[in-house]
Amino acid sequence: MANGLFTNTELIDSLIIDLNALPKELINGQYIQFCTLVSQMGQKLVSLKKGVPADIESKNKIIEDLKEQLRNCGIEVVTIPVSDLKKDGANDGSN
Predict the structure, then answer these.
(1) Which of 2-6, 34-38, 82-86 is least confident?
(2) What is the pLDDT of residues 30-74, one digit of tens each?
(3) Who's near 38: CB < 8 A, 6+ residues apart?
(4) What's the confidence (pLDDT) of residue 2?
(5) Which residues does residue 2 pair with via DSSP β-bridges, in sequence order?
(6) How many angstroms separate the CA atoms of 93 and 85, rounded?
(7) Where are the domains of the chain?
(8) Residue 34's CB: how many other CB atoms inside 10 A?
(9) How far from each other are the two terminal CA atoms of the chain, in whole angstroms?
(10) Separation CA 26–CA 5 (nearest Å)
(11) Residue 74: how many CB atoms within 10 A of its CB?
């Protein structure tokens, strides 16, 4: 989660809303509000930049935990390197 208040998706949605509001503020002559919005967008982007790696690390930990649970149940876990996957995510077994 980005900054603990929003998920990354919610943060991106709020950035889109802010982008849509920018021209309105300029047209209405609200220059300080325009600058405030730009500043807030910068802060959101910083939060997003920090949140994405944390989410990836969390995902990787969950995957490793699930693999361990499968191994504990006696199920063989096979890891396929990303380079062996086709572009659409499917592997036809030919390699």
Answers:
(1) 2-6
(2) 999 999 999 999 999 999 998 888 888 899 999 999 999 999 999
(3) 22
(4) 47
(5) 6
(6) 10
(7) 8-84
(8) 18
(9) 37
(10) 28
(11) 6
Beta partners for residue 6, in sequence order: 2
Burial level of 2, CB count in 10 A (0-12/13-18/19+)?
A: buried
- Sole residue written with tokens 């998706």: 9
Question: Angle 31-72/8-27 helices, nearest 10 degrees?
Answer: 170
What are the structure tokens assigned to 57, written together? 């690390």
Residue 85 pLDDT greater than 90, yes or no? no
> Tokens standing for 47?
């939060």
Q: Supply 16's token pair.
A: 């889109």
Cβ burial, residue 5 (10 Å; 0-12/13-18/19+):
exposed
